[in-house]
Description:
By secondary structure, the protein is mostly beta strands. The chain has one helix at residues 42-48; strands at residues 3-5, 11-14, 22-25, 27-31, 34-38, 49-51, 61-62, 76-84, 101-110, 113-122, 136-145, 152-155, 162-166, 178-183, 192-193, 200-205, 211-215, 218-224, 233-238, 242-243, 248-259, 267-273, 287-288, 304-305, 309-310, 317-326, 336-347. The chain folds into 3 domains: 3-51, no CATH class; 61-171, CATH 2.40.50.140; 175-347, Jelly Rolls. It is built from 1 helix and 27 strands. Strands 14, 15, 17, 18, 21, 24, 25 and 27 form an 8-stranded antiparallel β-sheet that branches. Strands 7, 8, 9, 10, 11, 12 and 13 form a 7-stranded mixed β-sheet that branches.
Amino acid sequence: REVYISLKGLFIGEERVGNGVTTIGGSTETDQYGTTVVSLNENQIKLSVLRSTTTETITPLTLTFSEIGNSAVGMLVSVENVEFADDLSGKRYFDPIETFDTRRTMQICSGFGYSEFQLETSAFSSFKNELLPTGNGTITAVVSKTFDGASLILALNSTDDVIFTGERCSLLDESDFILIFEEDFQSATNNTDLDFTGWTNYNEEGGYKWREKTFSGNGYTEFSTYNSGDASNIAWLVTPGFDMDAQSNEFLNFKTAQHHLDSPDNTIEVFISTNYNGTDVLGATWEPISATLASQANDWYDFVDSGLIDVSSYTGTIHVAFKVVGSGTNTTLDGAYQIDDFTMIATN
């Protein structure tokens, strides 16, 4: 339902000092740690929170666990292919030995391991004694934080939003796969244009290219538009070719990181081409592929795993390309992206 809130006489601030969750309160209180807002009392709710006759169905934002960041706090999200951890069979949403909240681990199969996130249930919830479902499916919940603000969690409105009717997922067996390509960039020469054998480093717009980088003994590649002086920078980094007929069940994996991103328009994308000739980047047909990529939601310089990307449906020779769009004159678009540990695995 559409709601109007009269802010006159109310307060906006953190609900707990330092937890980063901003809310509307009816008053404030201060202790040795700082000042927080206090919940509206019943009279304030009646006077300030006004219900309209307009109702709408809220459409949740579909995200993966790795895409849930501080910017999503307070949002209704849906996450697919989720199940509760293996050791939670027969457990309930709330553990009776807890006083206030219980956290239950959710997991998504991600290649050889799990991507995990926590579901938190209050001692005051109406569904606290319900059993956790044992299947796999979609959960819709609100992104929030733990009491101390240290961790992000999901909080349910109702167990009707937990639709785990599918079969539990299975991890891949590492012993079934072999490594057919690996580039860890450890041979990088710091602050030089990348010129690794077989790779294409192409600047579509602007003068900057992908650079070889090293830091604390780790090699990687980076594209930054900072101080380029160009209104538009577009740079491609294309891998060597891969013969997809030489093996089966191919999967890609890589890591990306970012720093100084200020806008979602400062983008990185990943593509595959089956007709790239090794030189004419813009003349090839590039198909976008889905991967977990570093974004503003991630901390600077923290490498994010792409997840295993199934490319086994391709035949012939493929190339993978990373494309970054930014600007050296618009300070909201002069962030940087980094790539490391690019691999392809397959079965014989």
